[in-house]
Amino acid sequence: MRRGLGIAVLTAIALAVTACGSSGSSGSKTTGGSGSGGGGGSSSASVSGAKTLQASALDNPPKGTITYCTGKDTTGDAAYTVAQFNAKYGAQGYHANLVQFPASADQQRAQFIQRQQAKSSSCDVFSSDVIWTAEFSSQHWLYDLTPYVSANASKFIAAPLDTVHYGGKYWGIPQTSDAAFIYYKTGEAVPSTWQQVYSAAKNSGGIVYQGAPYEGLTCNFLELAFAAGGQVLSADGKKSAINSPQNLAALQLMVSGIKGGSAPQAVTTYMEPESDQAFDTGKYGYLRNWTYAYAVHNTTGALKGKIHAAPLPTFAGAGKASILGGHNSVISVYSQDPGLALKFADFFASPAMQKAAILKFSLAAIIPSVYKDPDVLKAVPYAPQLLQALDQAKARPVSPVYPQISQAIYTNVNNALAGRESPQAALKAADSQINSALSTF
């Protein structure tokens, strides 16, 4: 997501739809990008014949200009990073240009794929959604950056770093991250379990979240499902594991929440903008949403100064989990200046740029040291909770056919929430559709 603490509410809301679309020193114990998280998959995957870029390539690359491609830079964070890079290295003959793709994550992915299929060098560095690593690396479109990551792994939060891991290799450098919170109004209880969330919500106007049939619902469902102990894929990524008792318990809780009045029926049509607008009316006691929502609701509108953030709770009798969002810097194998591209990606992940990202643009940093910075703690009071949320985050299923997997999840979960089919039937249908998708590779 790309948004700022001081930007207009509508701008922040418009950007929210890209949040989910779309081994560090922090003490994280949950992983997913390598197949060990709740999503499953990729533990036995391998990618052979990839081009490898050595970590030393960034030290003294040939003078030149690289192009950084990213989604629409509505808040200016990409332009800021490019400008800072050029200011620091321009005198040495190193420059970066910015190319903006559309705001839609689907269109960003499509434009990058078109360039890679044409073997174009027009994008040296691409801001890749965390869910695209398996797909892009399987197509041999990305440099293997394992040497760089091996030398720098200790500075990153584990969960974001895991999103660039696939097939035993690292295919990018974490750039920004994101995780969801339960937001609540002053005076409301802070539930410790999802069951308590729904119980408390029933007595405080309800909870709103992203329940429309799109990627956001996949994230919302998997937060409960993974916490309940569920998985989406088998460990080897070859079979669906969606139709399980744990996943059924999670879906039944969500369905019962709507039927019992803990969440409005209209939530089945809500994406981020609609859930924000509903919560801002003051009618609802709770909101599940991404990092940006704190700034949106706590700095403007009717709820200004009355909102608090809490990490996602546990599922009673099981564990806790949040779903990781964010973007990574990946380097195209068709880049004519891979060393300079690596220098730019490394600069993006530097402490100075990560501090600027969270202070200026409300982007979750991918290095834990930023969250202890006095300036950050003063300006972003929820910084400790954000780091905790990232620590417990898990990746979505790691698979080259992830788009089809997600569609099977959000379509059938939405059908269950809307009452068009039972939770049992929804998971059975999703199971069949996921297995069909997996059979294509």
Descriptive account of the structure:
The protein is an alpha/beta fold. The protein has two domains: 240 residues, D-Maltodextrin-Binding Protein, domain 2 (3-Layer(aba) Sandwich), CATH 3.40.190.10; 182 residues, D-Maltodextrin-Binding Protein, domain 2 (3-Layer(aba) Sandwich). 39% of the residues lie in helices and 13% in strands. The strands form four sheets. The protein has a five-stranded mixed beta sheet with strand order 2-1-3-12-6. Strands 8-9-7-10 form a four-stranded mixed beta sheet. A hairpin with a 2-residue loop joins β4 and β5. α8 crosses α9, α8 packs across α16 and α16 packs antiparallel against α17. The chain is globular. The two termini are 30 Å apart. The N terminus is likely disordered.
Q: What portion of residues belong to β-strands?
A: 5-15%
CATH class of the largest domain: Alpha Beta
Structural class: alpha/beta
Low-pLDDT residue intervals, each spanning 5 or more residues:
1-18, 22-37
**How many distinct helices?**
17
Largest sheet: number of strands, sense, barrel closure = 5 strands, mixed
Global geometry = globular
Q: Multimeric state of these chains?
A: single chain
